[in-house]
Design a protein that fits this description.
alpha/beta, 6 helices, 50% helix
């Protein structure tokens, strides 16, 4: 079923980086202009936090690594939710998602878009070097190549 532009469901994926913040702002503006709905997600990955820092957090806060990741993710989502109204989206749903499996951030984003029935994914382009991008492939490249909806990548 195809919805009209006025009912567009937009999924914004954030990692807390400057390009991701710009992506959330663009998604919020599009949501306002199109009268659609916005959901902001952050995918948690243990690779987000260096191992020694994770150990320090878990010991000092008596928390599991999942609880630490969830708290750090919530911080990133809080910042993103603050940007959305400034850019025009009055409300935005948000969610912390755990990476499906190691190295599967793109798949987790696409699964979230499918579950949300998103018409568009808006995300930032992280700054991997050209050489690293050739060998590893960026999350945004993987999302673009496997998504079943429109994807906008913001530099």
């Amino acid at each position: 079923e195809i919805r009209g532009l006025r009912d567009m469901r937009i999924l914004a994926a954030t990692d807390g980086s400057a390009p991701a913040t710009r992506a959330v702002e663009l998604a919020a503006r599009l949501t306002k202009e199109l009268g659609g709905a916005l959901k902001i997600i952050h995918v948690c990955s243990e690779r987000d936090v260096p191992e020694e820092q994770m150990s320090s957090y878990t010991i000092s806060r008596h928390a599991s690594s999942a609880e630490v990741l969830s708290a750090l993710s919530e911080q990133k989502l809080r910042v993103a939710r603050e940007h959305a109204p400034k850019a025009g989206a009055p409300t935005a749903e948000s969610a912390t998602l755990l990476e499906i499996e190691a190295g599967a951030i793109a798949e987790t984003i696409n699964d979230a878009a499918h579950s949300y029935e998103a018409d568009m994914i808006v995300m930032g382009k992280r700054g991997l070097s050209r050489m690293a991008g050739l060998f590893v492939g960026s999350v945004s490249q993987k999302v673009v190549s496997t998504a079943t909806c429109a994807v906008t990548v913001v530099p």
